[in-house]
Design brief:
Elements (H helix, E strand, L loop, with lengths): L1 H24 L22 E4 L10 E7 L12 E6 L3 E2 L3 E3 L7 E7 L8 E3 L1
Antiparallel strand pairs: 1-2, 2-6, 3-5, 3-7, 4-6
Length: 123
């Protein structure tokens, strides 16, 4: 008798939970989706690319490029991957992630064995 009662009670709880979910959220579970909060999403307009050295680099000399990732509200964005590319030279660590410790700023090191003007972009 106890096993039958537990089985019926378990089925009842499952059906009740499904019904309560549909009523509370007013749509089936299959139509629910988790959306990212726009306040924490990186913004191309608010994020910054900062150079520490405005002088031309010598061949094989390193430069530091800081990328400050900001949200639409101007707050730092954490745990976001940043990829740095350059049209001339090499990025020593091309992909890094922001963190709480570095306040949404990642530091890349670039170098080049060829003289010239480079276009640097971060995504």
């Amino acid at each position: 008798m106890d096993k039958k009662f537990l089985a019926v009670f378990t089925v009842f709880l499952l059906i009740f939970s499904l019904f309560a979910t549909i009523v509370i959220f007013n749509k089936p579970i299959s139509q629910m989706s988790a959306r990212a909060n726009p306040a924490t999403q990186p913004s191309g307009e608010r994020s910054l690319l900062l150079l520490t050295n405005f002088q031309p680099l010598k061949i094989n000399e390193q430069a530091v490029v800081n990328v400050a990732v900001r949200s639409e509200s101007g707050e730092p964005s954490f745990n976001k991957k940043v990829t740095l590319t350059t049209s001339l030279g090499n990025v020593i660590e091309p992909e890094l992630a922001t963190s709480v410790n570095n306040k949404g700023v990642v530091s890349f090191h670039i170098t080049s064995s060829t003289p010239g003007t480079a276009i640097i972009s971060a995504m």
